[in-house]
Amino acid sequence: MLDRRHLLPVLLPVPVPGRKVLRSLFCSLGLVMAILLPFAPVWSATGNPLETTSAKTASVLSPCQASKLGLEQTVPALNCSLAETLTLHFRQRLQQVLTEARQAVSQAILSQGTPALAEMPVKPLAVVVDLDETLLDNRAYFAEFGPYQTEAWNTWIARADAPAIAETLDWVRWVKAQGVRVYFVSGRREHQRQATEQNLKAIGLELGAVTPSGYDGLSLKPNDYPPEASPSGFKVEARKVLEARGLRVLLLLGDQASDLAGPVGEHRFQLPNPIYVIP
């Protein structure tokens, strides 16, 4: 979902992957230092905190709040974003959305057995899930490369090494275990399919597997899709294709409005993502 991104400061929480432990550890330590270092107090040459009016005002605010108000310019916006996503409130919001989505799936499964629906043709239930910042966490991309750049993004995807957002991965596995089909619709491009499938396999999901570790399809943007165009149009059409196959598209899960647009889908759930907004 990163073809046309207007980045805002922030990042989603990332679980430490089970493999490449040492590399993950050092990367995590580097991220923590990058986040915490700007929060050190500003001292004057005499060893006392600066006593200007701006500094006195900023002293009652967090460094990120002060930076946003223009009182201090020492805290990079990306660091503020990283710090925000590490808060308990952010993780609670993430879990709340997924809990509500789980309830919607459970209710749909139960309703299929009600007398009112007993004589109606039963369509297979399906959910449509976005990838980047919904299931795959690209925090390490932003830490290494900074704001979105096409060439850097292609390099990142080719590594097939983005870790999963643990809460979403658990939710996807639970949905699959209920017998509901799982389809991924992503703003990544078709030429990135092999790397994307490898990344999904690395986090424990494999195309076609009937177990909770499987998924049923992956739709990606055509290579010639206009880079300046919102991915919304492509995603709407991809979901229409699934419905035309006779599926009951129960819900959509994503982190952007484009993940939830269009007439297909009975329920829509948007995960928090303060890193960027796609029009």
Outline of this structure?
This protein has 279 residues and is an alpha/beta fold. The protein has helices spanning 21-36, 53-58, 63-68, 77-85, 88-111, 115-118, 139-145, 150-159, 166-177, 193-202, 232-244; strands at residues 6-7, 125-129, 181-189, 206-207, 214-215, 217-221, 248-254, 267-270, 276-277.
Verbal overview:
With 279 residues, the protein is an alpha/beta fold. 42% of the residues lie in helices and 14% in strands. It has helices spanning 21-36, 53-58, 63-68, 77-85, 88-111, 115-118, 139-145, 150-159, 166-177, 193-202, 232-244, and strands at 6-7, 125-129, 181-189, 206-207, 214-215, 217-221, 248-254, 267-270, 276-277. The model is unreliable at 4-17, 19-23, 32-61 and 66-75 (pLDDT under 50).
**Low-pLDDT segments, ≥5 res:** 4-17, 19-23, 32-61, 66-75
The structural class is alpha/beta
Order of helices and strands: EHHHHHHEHHHEHEEEHEEE
Strand content: 5-15%
Can you give the mean pLDDT?
Answer: 78
Percent helix range: 40-55%
Number of helices: 11
Bulk shape:
globular
Major sheet: 5 strands, parallel
Q: How many angstroms separate the termini?
A: 11 Å
* Total number of beta strands: 9
Oligomer: single chain
Strand order of the largest sheet: 6-3-2-7-8
How big is the Rg?
Answer: 21 Å
